[in-house]
Amino acid sequence: MKNKFRNGHLKQAEKVASEKGCHNMKLITTNINLHALGFYQKRGYRIVKIIQNAVPKAREIKPGIPLVAENGIPICDEILLKNTLGKKKPRF
User: Fold this and answer.
1) What is the predicted pLDDT for the residue at 57?
2) In angstroms, what CA-CA distances link 46 with 5, 28, 69?
3) Which of 54, 69, 81, 92 has its CA 20 to 30 A from that of 63?
4) What CATH number did the domain enclosing 32 receive?
5) Would you give the DSSP letter of residue 27?
């Protein structure tokens, strides 16, 4: 049910962006958010950049960001994903 909710929000955001003349949609998640990486890639987003050691810099602004995720993975990098709007999405 969560994915249907998230998918609806993502589609709405893409629709609004497209209506405003945007051709690409970009988003960032962290290296530990494996569920989000799968969610976005299934919807046509591609990893375009890994920003190493971005999270420690973010902790300077938001000191509440934990050092390690519940799954034991250190939270340290940000991953930039991009999707071309209007492009046919892959079917998985």
Assistant:
1) 94
2) 21, 11, 23
3) 81
4) 3.40.630.30
5) E
